[in-house]
User: What shape does this take?
Amino acid sequence: MYRVVIAPILGGIIGYITNALAIKMLFRPRRAIYIGKFHIPFTPGLIPQQKSRIAKSLGQMISGSLLDAVKIEQIVAEKINTFDAIELEKMIFGIMKKELRAIVYLGAALGFCMGFVNLLF
Assistant: This one.
């Protein structure tokens, strides 16, 4: 009886935690980490690592329908490149808070469902 309840709940908790951790790893660590001369993989996080590319893409997206597109694209890219990792993280979370939260909850729901599937086998 306990297995019927615990497996889906445990799966939901695991799904929630793994998705929350994955979203945090997009932004952190904010700098590359080294042990001696060896670079630790996946540091810095994806967003800090790709900041200049994100800035250029946002500039292109904003300037897409304007006449003086090149100048606006450069201004937006320069502005975003001046942000430190914390400011960039706050900006992205401010824009995408609902979507990122939905991803975490979806992970919990999928984990819950996988807990039920686990009971079948």
Remarks:
- The helical segments are 2-27, 46-49, 51-62, 69-82, 85-120.
- The two ends are 15 Å apart (CA to CA).
- Residues 85-120 form the longest helix (36 residues).
